[in-house]
Structure formats: structure tokens, C-alpha cells
Amino acid sequence: MTNDIIVDVLNVSQQEIQSISSYHKEDALFIDVILKRKETSCPVCGSSSLKIKEYKLRKINHSALQFRKCTILYHARRFVCTQCGKTFYEPCPFVGSGSNISQLTILNVLKELKETSATFTSVARHNALSPTKVQEIFDSYVNIPRQTLTKVLCIDEVYTETSTISKYSCLILDFLNHRLLDVIRDRKKYTLLHYFEKISKEERSNVQYVVMDMYDIYRSVIQLRFPKAKIAVDSFHVVKNYTEALDNIRLRILRKFKKKDVEYYLLKNFKWLLLVDAPRENEAKYNRRLNRYINYPQLLELILSISGELREGYELKSEYLYLNRYSTEDNVRERLDQHLKKMKESGIPEIMKFRETLNHWYEEIITSFIRVDGRRLSNGIMESRNGIAKKIKNNANGYYNFERYRNRCLYVMNGDAKPNLSKSKNAVKMKGCKRGKYRKHK
How far separated are the first and last CA of the chain, in Å rounded? Predict the structure, then answer.
């Protein structure tokens, strides 16, 4: 072996090696190595008067080569102190105490698990380990504490299935720095109240705004645990609900027609024209059912001409989109009041029902137009983090261990999150059933 290969594979210099050889067996690489003796002293009495009692062969898993198993056959010296009789092994540069996996392998595993698309199985395959061993490494070295609450929080749920009790976990995000602060086991009221109660009042009092979707439990929890914070409803969810109200109008009108009717065809196949912001002008294409060349704006006009209620509902939604996009903190209250008045005058059942929702969240909608550091309050970045959390879960085909899932999310989403290389004293382990008694067969 050349010096470069020794340094790259073993992470030791040529001067430290007494003898080294390598061979291949069953598509695996074995490196037989003895290191030069270094000055050391007895850990009990401190004496340097030592004798070599024996050499102990240690087999160390080492991920030097990707997709290929590598084992270091390390001949470790065992010393005996001539003063006190204590026996001990020389320091090993490859592994920590009580481990048979090299430090470089552990670092490679932790580095790969930083990637969103990585799974415990794929990392195990790359490093010639078992998935269980990779999970054990992750649990031992990655245990990230809750991050400090910040000035503006975003809160939302993500479908995780980490528990049979609740299918949703709750994410808490820093709006300004886009850091994931924590993942809560579920979104139930008593769970959230208990979680925030454990945080000091001083820390909670620093929170000025909390952005959320229209989930009443979140609002009641924030009002109880963050009395100084203002609540803002994410504008995306308001627009989404308005779009659903318009779609319900479409469905009600659709049921009045038969499948053979042109109106049914238009409402069924081109509903997306109603739901988008505004259809783009495109080149007219021939439509067999209509027996004419027609483009998207013309199709939309045909759909709206089917029902006066549908047209009015569409115009109200378009007006709200304009209000949502161009209003400011100073004029939004007046504009929203005028819009609510128009909704009431329309008398459309679906619009009237959604109007109750807007009234129910009136102040929270007004608060969402506030800008902090030049940015309007929203949960936009949270939707991105939800996507990562779902990808982590889906790639692994689900997590049964919530704490492991929580640590993985915090580890992946926060760039500065680092493993504790001295090992965590509180490694994550699932509580299994107590092992039953058995009789050993003789």
C-alpha cells in the first residue's frame, strides 16, 4: 500500500504503522495492521514501566470503500503494569471504547443521514452495515434539543403516522430564519398545552406573532400559552377555502344537468379554469364537442354564462385575490369589510357559509397583512418544510419511533445541526415488551 492509500483508507500516517498487508475474500477487503508502539502509562498508577502481555485481534468494520465491505484486522497490544499489575490495551485510533465500528464509518453514516433522500437502509448498504446498526449510530450521536422560541413562529401539522393514537405531528418553525424549532408528537389540545407549559413564561413572552392555518385548537392554545402574541392566519389557506366554496357552487349547478348536456361537459372537464387565478391567453384549439375553435378565456366565459350564481361567485373570489395581493395593513380592514358586505348581498349559500368562516377569523386575517422585516406574515416556508418532513417519512416507509423521526427532521432541516460525537447519554430507544422467561435446552 502507498502512503496516500494508507492515509485515505485508515486515516493514519505511514510513520505510525509497524506492519500492514491486505487481501480480498468473498468480495470484501481485509486490512491486517499492527501499529508502532507509543509512549503510554498505566491508567491506575501512572507508571511507564510496562510489558506487552499479548496481542488481541480486533475486527473493525470500516466503510473505506462504498458498496464494498472493508474490515480492519487490528492487532491491539495488551500491556501489563510491572508496578501494580493492571492490564490494559493501547489506545486505538480506529474506534472508540467498546465499539467495533471505525470512527470514519460513523462519520460517513452521520454525513449521509444529513441528506433528505437518505434512508437507514441505503446508508447501511453504502457502509456495509445493517439498517439496525445505522439506526443505533444515529440514535447514539443525534439527539437535538428543542430550539429557543423566536419573535415570529409558524405552526402547522404534517401527516406522519408515527403513532396509532394520532396520525399528525406538529411542526414549529422560525419565520425569520427558517429554522425548524421542534416537532411535537401530535396536534391534540392537551398535548400542545402541556408542551408549551414546560417552556418558561419569559421565553414565551418574547413571541410576538404566531402564523397558522384555520385550526381552532391552535388558536385556543396560543391564546392560553402566549397571551402577548398576535395570531395571523396564513393567506394561502384562506384563498384555498374560498376556492373550495366556489367549487361547491360548481358542483351544485353541475347536478342540475345530464351527462349528455354541453353545460355538464364544460363544468366537469374545465373546472380548473374556475379555480386558477386567471387563465392565460392561448392559441385557439378545435374542440369536437363544441364544434369550434376556442381558447381558455373563451371557455371560461362559456362556463360563467351557465349560471349567474357561478359568475358572481367567481367575481367575488377574484376580488378577494386582488384584496389579498395588494392590500396593506393600513387599508385591509376597510376593504375586507366591503367584501364581506358584498358576500352577504350575493345570498349564495356556499358564499354565505364561507363568509361565516371569514368573520370567525376576522382579526387573524387582518393580522396576516402585517410585515416583519419587510416580509408579510405567512406560512409559505412551512409548506416547504412540510414537504421535507413528508419525504423523510415516505422514503423510510414510515417511522414507528417518534423521537427518531423528530431528531431526523431537526438534523436534516437545520444546516447547523451537528451530531454529538461524544455520544448522547439519552439515546433514543423504543420501549418494547418485557422478555419472557425461557428454559435453555441442554
Answer: 49
